């Protein structure tokens, strides 16, 4: 029996990329995680209408879709800030003081790890090892890794990329 | 593709290289890329077109030569000079030095123990081939083992070879690889899977990332040989989404191998077919556990399930599944090429071959190393690693990540293998090795790992979900100086309970960092107790 495909949440053309991923998996439930990756890559985060659309398209209950989306740390349900500021809290970085670095950044930016500043400009994130342990402690500002990082360096880099 | 065609490609590649007197290899691994080695490569290419000497050289991007602490790294061939911390401004001098005196100020001593004490099998091509070119891998002898297996050997012979080599799983537990293969080969059913575990979740470990980035075809060849041996025709490579470069290079490698008939249908002109697909992880440490990983490939939450049944009988979609780690597969092509006896001649009586370690923390030469099993920790940390910087004192070395333990100085002269590490309360693990000096408190280190396990617990079983949370609370209390002797006793009791009653490896091993620090550094806990 052919089930009618649900309509995407909006007429945003980016949903075509999401459709392409689901088609690649023949709309089978095992394509769920890959599909969520595509949504996050194209839209920056996951939201309820998007998850409902994927759930219906792949014939996965919404509860399970939401379960998967919230189980994995890589997926976020909050829109990211204009700039992201990431501190690596892997063991090598931690031994070299990235824990203190994070505390200081939290105080300076006035948000906790995982939050975005109220003006929506900066998201502060913690990751569990970016695999660049030779550069510990490592920070990442807008995708650019900063080796052996300090708080002032992070803030300068943030200011630079904001301009 | 037939073995003859493979030889032709290799010969053509040799010939093309003979016309180029000099090559400049720039490391394009994640660590060096973070130090902008891609810009350095562009600068070198521009410089090469500008100078008359430059016309005689080729600039290539290669995988990781290992000494990440001194990146970006550049190797000049055939001179064999290694340059460290190279900046785009240095491009001019490097190109001009070709065929003349090397650039003294950038030179890195390749005679130092860091290079001389290593024994490279898995990393033999890392840093010397371009991971984005199939021809480079073929010229280095790649895919000959696969074609030899499918055209000259029976699956049983391949398995015998792996059994005789004594190779043990490099993911941590050290289960003999050959036995696992044999079990899957014996399992009934026409449809089987081969899965590669590239979900390297241990913080402070990057061995598998580096292998996948620097030599992706080696992993694919190992998987294909395994598939032939166990009778599988489908495979999955499960890689962390946090490793975008590894994912990109693996996908590229799969396409190249498929285009050349080295993956896909009728490999080597035989009936053997093997298709492989990359699946992305999504940031869950528990997915390194094999049953959780398979749930994730099926598109579900990464919850582990009790074993037995083991994946060898009932794995992906309840079908027989062979699951090994990246480094295990990466050993396979060399074992088949050089023979099981050669491999079994390296290492100790029970642990054969070499092990790749990510040496990090408070040590001079942080980076990726491959050493024969049986080497001592002291040799690794003080000879290869160059000792502790800033005149500080060695305190402990942490192996095995959140599932491992801390080893104090008194065991530094112990030979490293699966059994010896377990006997002192740690594990081999996947190969993270973090050196800790006297500036770190061991209570803090234990708290760090428990905090990690607490947040990574999948929540399915109570001992792990609630136990790690309680352990974390107690450790915070002790670390803040408000804990009592009674709290310490409760912590020890909890360690026992979580260890013996958790469902999967994550929970069963979560107390290890606490148990091992309590065993060797109990005074640090006691000095923090109130009253």
Please, could you describe this protein's structure?
The complex is a heterodimer of chains A (163) and B (531). Chain A is α+β, with helices and mostly antiparallel strands. Chain A folds into two domains: 57 residues; 80 residues, Glutaredoxin (3-Layer(aba) Sandwich). In chain A, 44% of the residues lie in helices and 11% in strands. Chain A has a four-stranded mixed beta sheet with strand order 2-1-3-4, with helices on one face. In chain A, strand 3 and strand 4 form a beta hairpin. The radius of gyration of chain A is 19 Å and the shape is elongated. Helix content of chain B is 43%, strand content 14%. Chain B contains 23 helices and 14 strands. The model of chain B has no long low-confidence stretch (mean pLDDT 95). The interface between A and B is large, with 38 and 49 residues.
Entry summary:
By secondary structure, chain A is α+β, with helices and mostly antiparallel strands. In chain A, 44% of the residues lie in helices and 11% in strands. Chain A has helices spanning 15-24, 32-43, 48-58, 62-71, 91-95, 98-109, 151-162, and strands spanning 83-88, 122-127, 139-141, 144-146.
Oligomeric state of the chains?
Answer: heterodimer
CATH topology of the largest domain in chain B: Rossmann fold
Q: What amount of the residues of chain A lies in strands? A: 5-15%
What separation lies between the terminal Cα atoms of chain B? 75 Å
Number of helices of chain B: 23
CATH architecture of the largest domain in chain A: 3-Layer(aba) Sandwich
Strand content of chain B: 5-15%
CATH homology group of the largest domain in chain A:
Glutaredoxin
The count of domains of chain B is: 4
- Uncertain stretches of chain A: none
Helix content of chain A: 40-55%
State the largest interface. A-B, 38 and 49 residues
Task: Give the overall shape of chain B, derived from the CA principal axes.
Answer: globular
Strand order within the widest sheet of chain A? 2-1-3-4
């Amino acid at each position: 029996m052919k089930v009618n495909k649900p309509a995407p949440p909006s007429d945003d053309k980016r949903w075509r990329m999401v459709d392409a991923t689901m088609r690649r998996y023949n709309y089978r439930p095992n394509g769920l995680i890959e599909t969520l990756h595509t949504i996050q890559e194209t839209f920056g985060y996951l939201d309820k209408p998007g998850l409902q659309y994927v759930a219906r398209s792949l014939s996965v209950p919404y509860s399970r879709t939401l379960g998967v989306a919230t189980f994995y740390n890589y997926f976020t349900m909050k829109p990211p800030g204009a700039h992201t500021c990431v501190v690596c809290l892997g063991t090598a970085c931690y031994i070299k003081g990235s824990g203190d670095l994070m505390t200081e950044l939290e105080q300076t930016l006035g948000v906790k790890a995982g939050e975005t500043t109220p003006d929506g400009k900066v998201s502060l994130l913690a990751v569990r090892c970016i695999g660049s342990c030779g550069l510990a402690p490592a920070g990442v500002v807008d995708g650019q890794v900063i080796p052996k990082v300090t708080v002032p360096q992070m803030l300068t880099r943030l200011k630079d990329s904001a301009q | 593709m037939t073995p003859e065609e493979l030889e032709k490609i290799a010969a053509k590649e040799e010939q093309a290289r003979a016309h180029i007197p000099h090559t400049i290899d720039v490391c394009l691994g994640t660590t060096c890329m973070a130090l902008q080695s891609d810009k350095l490569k562009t600068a070198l290419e521009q410089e090469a077109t500008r100078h008359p000497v430059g016309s005689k050289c080729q600039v290539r991007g290669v995988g990781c030569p290992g000494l990440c602490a001194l990146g970006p790294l550049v190797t000049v061939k055939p001179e064999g000079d290694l340059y460290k911390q190279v900046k785009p401004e240095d491009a001019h001098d490097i190109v001009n030095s070709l065929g003349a005196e090397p650039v003294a100020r950038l030179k890195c001593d390749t005679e130092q123990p860091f290079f001389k004490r290593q024994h490279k099998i898995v990393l033999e091509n890392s840093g010397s081939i371009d991971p984005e070119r199939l021809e480079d891998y073929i010229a280095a002898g790649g895919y000959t083992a696969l074609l030899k297996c499918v055209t000259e050997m029976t699956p049983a012979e391949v398995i015998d070879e792996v059994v005789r080599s004594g190779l043990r799983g490099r993911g941590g537990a050290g289960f003999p690889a050959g036995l696992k293969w044999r079990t899957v080969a014996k399992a009934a059913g026409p449809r089987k899977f081969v899965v590669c575990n590239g979900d390297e979740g241990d913080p402070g470990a990057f061995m598998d990332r580096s292998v996948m980035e620097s030599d992706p075809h080696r992993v694919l060849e190992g998987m294909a040989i395994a598939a032939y041996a166990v009778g599988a025709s489908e495979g999955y490579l499960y890689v962390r989404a946090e490793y975008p470069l590894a994912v990109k290079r693996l996908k590229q490698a799969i396409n190249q191998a498929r285009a050349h008939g080295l993956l896909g249908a009728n490999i080597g002109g035989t009936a053997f077919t093997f298709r492989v697909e990359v699946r992305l992880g999504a940031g869950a440490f528990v997915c390194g556990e094999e049953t959780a990983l398979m749930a994730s490939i099926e598109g579900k939450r990464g919850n582990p399930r009790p074993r037995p049944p083991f994946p060898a009988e009932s794995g992906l979609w309840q079908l027989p599944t062979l699951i090994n780690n990246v480094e295990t597969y990466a050993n396979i092509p060399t074992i088949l090429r050089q023979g099981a006896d050669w491999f079994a001649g390296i290492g100790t009586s029970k642990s054969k071959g070499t092990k790749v370690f990510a040496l990090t923390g408070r040590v001079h030469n942080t980076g990726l190393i491959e050493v024969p099993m049986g080497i001592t920790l002291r040799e690794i940390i003080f000879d290869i690693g160059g000792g502790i910087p800033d005149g500080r004192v060695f305190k402990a070395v942490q192996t095995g990540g959140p599932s491992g333990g801390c080893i104090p100085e008194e065991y530094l002269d112990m030979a490293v293998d699966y059994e010896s590490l377990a006997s002192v309360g740690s594990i081999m693990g996947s190969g993270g090795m973090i050196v800790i000096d006297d500036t770190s408190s061991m209570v803090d280190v234990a708290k760090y790992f428990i905090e990690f396990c607490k947040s990574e617990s999948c929540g399915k079983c109570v001992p792990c979900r609630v136990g790690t949370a309680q352990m974390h609370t107690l450790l915070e209390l002790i670390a803040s100086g408000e804990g009592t002797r009674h709290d310490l006793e409760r912590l020890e009791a909890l360690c026992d309970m979580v260890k013996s009653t958790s469902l999967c490896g994550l929970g069963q091993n979560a107390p290890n960092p606490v148990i091992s620090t309590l065993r060797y550094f109990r005074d640090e806990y006691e000095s923090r107790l109130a009253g």
